[in-house]
């Protein structure tokens, strides 16, 4: 049997699986999905778990039990592309004939001393659980600093404000405004919401070091009971260790069919792939579906034909009643984008769209 292995059961990896099983799998192919946990976790909602407004259970989606799909659980330590082996922290290596690496991302601490040791993370289910404990065990009037004014930092700050109105919450960013990737109108709307809800915004701050109870920057120090890091991402450590061509963000450079040119039996999907748009769940799902289509065509001996990926937009939440986003060229703020995001979450839970 030829082994087709998908590493990672996140948005990209599950999209590959869903697409593959839309058609019969060749009789000589075994499809294996490998993940550290026995369910997909909805990473776009980790901010709610950290803030205490969503439960762990709510963010788990069972893997679809397709006939013939083998589910394998374990902590991947390395990929040996020369020998076509996957090594685990425990147990025997797994051989593959074709491989999809869809392992997602981890925090990028930008070489800031102490950031990895003394700040909390929402990049994995395990780290988000720990962040939830730290945030929700903080005494009233505690000082919470969220480093990074992008989508994750904004959503976490807003959700935490609704969850813990007693806390002093600040967003620290090195830029001149929040949500720099969004138009100024959207950024201004979010800033107004934070002003009305007593979330402090501290811009143009370049952090020099982080300690357990203080953040050092060029102009001085900021006291902190809990520091949460949402200031950038990078590919998973396993991908960082691969000796292949990468772009400036450390993402793997691929050919037109999302294969590593030196190892065409290996596809890379999602946050680890060098794509012409920013990493996101939506991009990972779209690319994962195309990898499934490519693989099916190759199994049939056909030349894959792909259409250009077109992303539908980006939605963000400000608590449970307000939101913001971009839908094509349209800028949306208020209750409608929040309702739309709730709909997208429902669809993700039910593997629709």
Walk me through what this model shows.
By secondary structure, the chain is an alpha/beta fold. The protein is 27% helix and 27% strand. It has a six-stranded mixed β-sheet with strand order 5-2-1-9-20-19, with helices on one face. It has a four-stranded parallel β-sheet with strand order 13-12-11-17. The chain is globular and about 60 Å long. The protein starts with a strand and ends with a helix. The relative contact order is 0.16.
Structural shape: globular
Relative helix content = 25-40%
Reported for the largest beta sheet, the result is: 6 strands, mixed
Number of helices: 9
Helix-strand makeup class: alpha/beta
Unreliable parts: none
Strand order of the largest sheet: 5-2-1-9-20-19
- The gyration radius over C-alpha positions equals 21 Å
β content, as a range? Answer: 25-35%
Distance between the termini: 31 Å
The overall average pLDDT, rounded, is: 95
Number of strands: 23
Labels describing this entry:
353 residues; alpha/beta; six-stranded mixed beta sheet; four-stranded parallel beta sheet; 27% strand
């Amino acid at each position: 049997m030829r082994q087709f292995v998908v590493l990672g059961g996140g948005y990209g990896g599950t999209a590959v699986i869903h697409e593959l099983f839309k058609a019969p799998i060749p009789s000589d192919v075994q499809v294996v999905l490998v993940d550290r946990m026995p369910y997909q976790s909805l990473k776009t909602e980790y901010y709610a778990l950290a803030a205490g407004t969503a439960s762990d259970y709510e963010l788990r989606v069972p893997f679809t039990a397709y006939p013939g799909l083998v589910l394998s659980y374990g902590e991947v330590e390395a990929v040996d592309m020369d020998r076509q082996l996957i090594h685990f922290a425990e147990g025997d290596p797994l051989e593959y004939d074709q491989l999809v690496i869809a392992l997602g991302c981890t925090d990028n601490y930008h070489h800031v001393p102490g950031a990895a040791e003394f700040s909390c993370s929402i990049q994995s289910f395990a780290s988000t659980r720990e962040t939830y404990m730290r945030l929700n065990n903080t005494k009233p009037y505690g000082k919470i600093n969220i480093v990074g004014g992008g989508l994750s930092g904004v959503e976490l700050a807003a959700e935490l404000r609704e969850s813990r109105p007693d806390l002093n919450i600040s967003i620290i960013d090195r830029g001149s405004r929040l949500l720099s990737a969004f138009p100024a109108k959207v950024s201004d709307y979010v800033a107004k919401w934070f002003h009305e809800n007593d979330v402090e915004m501290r811009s143009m701050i370049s952090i020099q070091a982080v300690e357990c109870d203080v953040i050092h920057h060029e102009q001085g120090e900021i006291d902190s009971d809990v520091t949460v890091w949402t200031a950038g991402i990078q590919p998973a450590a396993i991908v960082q260790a691969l000796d292949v061509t990468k772009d400036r963000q450390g993402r793997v450079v691929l050919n037109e069919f999302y294969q590593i040119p030196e190892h065409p039996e290996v596809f890379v999907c999602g946050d680890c792939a060098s794509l012409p748009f920013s990493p996101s769940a939506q991009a990972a799902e779209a690319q994962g579906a195309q990898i499934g289509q490519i693989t099916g065509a190759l199994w049939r001996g056909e030349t894959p034909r792909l259409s250009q990926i077109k992303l539908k937009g980006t939605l963000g939440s400000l608590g449970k009643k307000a939101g913001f986003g971009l839908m094509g060229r349209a800028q949306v703020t208020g209750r409608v984008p929040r309702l739309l995001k709730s709909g997208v979450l429902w669809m993700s839970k039910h593997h629709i769209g």
